[in-house]
Design goal:
Rossmann fold; six-stranded parallel sheet; alpha/beta; globular; binds zinc ion; two-stranded antiparallel ribbon; binds pyrazine-2-carboxylic acid
Amino acid sequence: MPARITPGPADALVLIDIQNDFCPGGALAVPDGDAVVPAANRLARLFPTTLLTQDWHPADHRSFASAHPGKAPFDTVALAYGAQVLWPDHCVQGTTGAAFHSGLDVSRAELVLRKGFRREIDSYSAFQENDRATATGLAGYLRERGIRRLFFAGLATDFCVAYSAEDAVRCGFEAVVIEDACRAIDLDGSLADAKGRLQAAGVRLAATADF
Ligand code: VGL
Ligand code: ZN
């Protein structure tokens, strides 16, 4: 990225899943997850458009280990659409765990996109659910608004941030991950995998210092 990035009208900041359950003390805490909050707030003041995503699962969601007798969190199972990592129950609709971190300034957000609300399908990506067939509608929203370039920050780098950025490119947007405004779960090398996929997809990396 150039030394200075000045967000313009075709740019949007997408803050991924900055929710209590992904922060220290939460059900699926990302190490140091709450460290993204000040960076996210600062970035949001620089962008003409900011969107938020919110992981939003029913209590009996199929991505929860609790829905699979004999399985434990972080095991992998085969669902109808393929391999799915099983997670601790997290971001259950309407709970405190699903709420945005209380320090996140949501006042500038123009859209809150909820995802993962279909019981049978997980959704890491803000664009397409894990069956790789069900669209969330975000691409259409962004196109209608004339947004062409997306900057991603939030949680977790190697799951929802990476899948969203890759899909953004697939949907025809430019995508940039603001690396130090993200934190990773890093499950069995998932961060290195995600970085390889981001590079292969043509997603660029930036830092908060570039703004
Ligand atoms: C996420 C695992 C399960 C994320 C959401 O936001 O990265 N990870 N649900
Ligand atoms: Zn989830």
